[in-house]
Amino acid sequence: MPPTDASADAGTAPVSDIGTAMSLGARDGRIAQAGLSADSEDTLDMRLPDEIVALFVEEPGAAGEQSSGPDSVPFASDPDLPDADDLLDHVAEWGPISTSAGVLHLVPVRIERDLPIIDRWMNDPAIATFWGLAGPQNATEEHLRAHLSGDGRSVPCLGLLGGTPISYWELYRADLDPLARYYPARPHDTGLHLLIGAVGDRGRGLGGTLLRAVADLVLDKRHACARIVAEPDIRNTPSVAAFLSAGFRFSAEIELPAKRAALMVRDRSLRHML
């Protein structure tokens, strides 16, 4: 069992690294232990085709491409930043938002800048219990690079509150993730993972406040997204409670490869009711 003082926000570990994401779906074509048939019309079992990915890549010289001169480096050329045409509607451009706890800004991760603090958080025992990235720094680095080197379906971010890094987030296309095999996914479902870094910032309701703010931000910026989902470990009751306080509803228990999870859902249609 996890430590009794585990943060409500330290238990939102991902199903898998993005680099191995689609390999989970190759087994048998079944939706393991989720009570859903493989041919359920409500469940997406999809790998993004190359021809679709190509639609998001501009041809050289296309409109909007920046100069490749020494004083102007294209955004996508930095390997530590997600593609400007990511599949999450340009998270890097969303900007700061006001919350009751202060101004929150999700900033896409840059490894050379952010790895030390994220690795330190991952080695906190309460966080390591659920994220499983404790140990040498290269474990966290490989995890981050797997997301950053993908096609934009997952964007890792630092959460700055009043300009200070206090949280780590992963926003991802749940409908294009292995998670889609374990619940009735819909197009453009957006998933969230969150951890609060400092012990002093946990256990005081901050997780619920930030989750609600980011969920609202996603719904504001991603007009095609009708639902936000999360899958915290079912054992991490503070994390489940934080999602409930943020307007998510408990949908089901699902058996994932590395954990038994609580499927939490925030519906656009219920946004102003919960």
Write up what this structure looks like:
Helices cover 23% and strands 20% of the residues. It has helices spanning 50-55, 111-122, 125-131, 137-148, 206-221, 237-245; strands at 97-99, 102-108, 154-161, 164-173, 190-196, 227-230, 249-255, 260-267. Helix 2 packs across helix 4 (137-148) and helix 5 crosses helix 6. It is globular and about 40 Å long. The chain starts with 49 loop residues before the first helix and ends in a 7-residue tail after the last strand.
Give keywords.
globular; 6 helices; 8-stranded mixed sheet; single chain; alpha+beta; disordered N terminus; 274 residues; 20% strand
Write the layout of secondary structure elements.
Layout: H1 50-55, E1 97-99, E2 102-108, H2 111-122, H3 125-131, H4 137-148, E3 154-161, E4 164-173, E5 190-196, H5 206-221, E6 227-230, H6 237-245, E7 249-255, E8 260-267
Parallel strand pairs: 5-6
Antiparallel strand pairs: 1-2, 2-3, 3-4, 4-5, 6-8, 7-8
Helix pairs in contact: 2-4, 5-6
Summarize this structure briefly.
The chain is α+β, with helices and mostly antiparallel strands. The chain is 23% helix and 20% strand. It has an eight-stranded mixed β-sheet with strand order 1-2-3-4-5-6-8-7, with helices on both faces.
Low-confidence stretches: 1-12, 16-85
* Inertia-based shape: globular
Mean pLDDT: 78
Helix percentage: 10-25%
